[in-house]
Amino acid sequence: MHTADVDSAPAEKLDEIKKILAKNTELREITSEPDPDSVLILTPIKDGAEYLDRYFSLIDRLDYPRSSISIAFLVSDSIDKTQQILVQKQKQYQQDGPEEQRFNRFEIYRQDFFYILSHSQRHDFKMQRDRRTVMARARNYLWTRALKDEQWVLWIDGDLEEYPSTIIKDLMAYDKDIIVPACMENRTKVDGPIRHTLYDHNAWQETDASRKMLAGLKETDFLAEDTKYIKSGRKYMDKFKNEEIVPLDGIGGTFTLVKSLVHRSGVVFPTWLVEHEVETEGFAKLAKLNGFGVYGLPSYHVIHVRSET
């Protein structure tokens, strides 16, 4: 039972709920329960060899018990050395390196979808429904294969440039079902002042204007956030001023912390339209329809590598 269930329970049911929770506590005292701080880091990756050194450098900086971290990758449709590098890293961490450096688990999966898309087409609006549907399939394959008894799932993109070493503890401290930082992009010019702009437009909050836009759509209409083609009226993370935490209606997957209960309750990354969305935005919509909370931290930043488009 998650917090939203308890908070919204009718008063006449509270006594019964307390009895159920008491039995839950009683069982915990006589059984072996999973580590409440255990986290499974999940990264779907395609042709990401050039980013992996930086990826593991950031992981190594994390201020979090290594024994409580499991990590799993899904390699899809790759033709570079992504898979070979991951196998080398697995051996380095789990066999050759010192014991304190070892993850609880380090797993690599391979599932090809044979979805061929050039890098220049990656953000082409016309390609987004097919592309994001394949990404949803990849995410679902990965978490259903890799998740065991971990209590948290952390989705991390393979091509992040920077994030705080305390980020796992920081995000967990909010105790939300789903929470994301703001994903920015480094647009600093040589010898210029530091300039970060919003990278992930998939994290947003509906507004009166966006709800009006949605009301005019057909059930079969697909939406993807692309400010060049669509003026959705949604409020993106960089538009919140002086707000520590805000409820969201859509999220991206660059750095997303999820309570495992959300996935285990049947909330997947939809390949079908959920209120006009698929993949991560559809995941957020589906989570909210199932009573889970979705939140963002507008002033807490992670930095994505600079896009070419």
From TrEMBL:
InterPro entries: Mannan_Polymerase_Subunit, Nucleotide-diphossugar_trans. Pfam families: Anp1. It comes from the Eukaryota. Belongs to the ANP1/MMN9/VAN1 family. This is Mannan polymerase II complex anp1 subunit. It comes from Coemansia guatemalensis. The gene is ANP1_3.
